[in-house]
Amino acid sequence: MSKDISAPLLRTARLLDLVPFLNTHQGIALKELAQHFNVSQAQMIADLTTLWMCGLPGYTPLELMDLEFESGFVSIRNAATLSKPRTITFQEGVALLLGLDLIASSLPDDRQDLLEATESLRGRLTKILGVPVKLSVATSTSGSVLTAISHAVQTNGGLKLRYHSMYKDLVSERVVIPVDIYQSHENLYMRAYCLTSCDYREFRVDRIELATPESVVENIVQDTKDSKKISFSLALQKASRDVCERFAITNIEIGTSIKLSSFSKQWIERSVMASGGAVLLQTPPEIRAEVAKKAQLMLNRYKEA
Fold first, then answer.
1. Fold of 7-82
2. pTM here?
């Protein structure tokens, strides 16, 4: 069986970390020391024995490190030259700088203490690494919005949102109860129960312009009264996969009329038009007329081209 070629490098790094750690943890139990570095006690004794033979040129008892561990407790002396922890690599430093920038962007504006501490640490790392410019990670998500969402999820509280809807291309206000946050295709989404729609909705976090705590108890009854579903019917012309998934259709024969409902008139229009000739909107007549009007406008543009 071949030897792990990374083992010598890992052991060297562990030995360099051992010296400053022992300097600040004099008399630590051998068992606890081995657990801290995630190795067996036998391996730790082998490492300490190796350190015993390390020191400055001359290699007499005056220059070598002095370790004591026979009693089961470890102490170290005469190791001033290796008393400082290993410095971070350039790649590690850049990763830390980018991480600190992300942390700073997610902090609320009222936590000036954390913002100042983060900026101080970034300044020190920049100086150590010798980076000529400030590294930054661009993010379109507001830190105050993320904080408000996280707090609402943890406390089962409500939020009042100012949200830019891409379906309607307008900014609306609504009250929601956030359930969780997840990432998909490099975008952050919030899944929440919308009291305006009386149903679960998903919101792209970077499109939330403002999120403030809102008491939802008094809103639930009123929003339930105000929200009305729109009933509509479709005739299935082609059972393609995207159409079946869009309208949640299962085991429906071609030509069959299907009765559905939605809270959004715009969603009905867009979904029917996106389905092409695969569905035929039958009712309500006002939405059917609007779909026909928009479809004709699109056909006219093809004729003009």
1. Arc Repressor Mutant, subunit A (1.10.10)
2. 0.36
What's the CATH number for 143-226? 2.30.30
Instruction: Calculate the dihedral angle through the C-alpha atoms of 155, 159, 164, 166, rounding to the nearest 10 degrees.
Output: 60
Other beta carbons within 10 Å of 82: 20
Q: How many whole angstroms separate alpha carbon 236 and alpha carbon 272?
A: 11
pLDDT per residue as tens, the chain (305 positions): 444 444 777 888 888 888 888 888 888 898 998 998 889 988 888 888 888 777 666 555 556 777 788 888 988 876 665 555 556 677 777 778 777 777 777 677 777 888 888 888 888 877 777 766 565 555 556 667 888 888 888 887 888 888 887 666 678 888 888 888 888 777 788 888 888 777 778 888 888 888 888 875 545 444 444 456 788 888 888 877 777 777 777 777 787 788 888 777 777 888 888 888 888 888 888 988 988 888 888 888 777 65
Domain ranges in the chain are 7-82, 90-129, 143-226, 230-304
Distance between CA atoms of 78 and 26, rounded to whole angstroms?
13
Q: Are 57 and 120 in contact (CB under 8 A)?
A: no
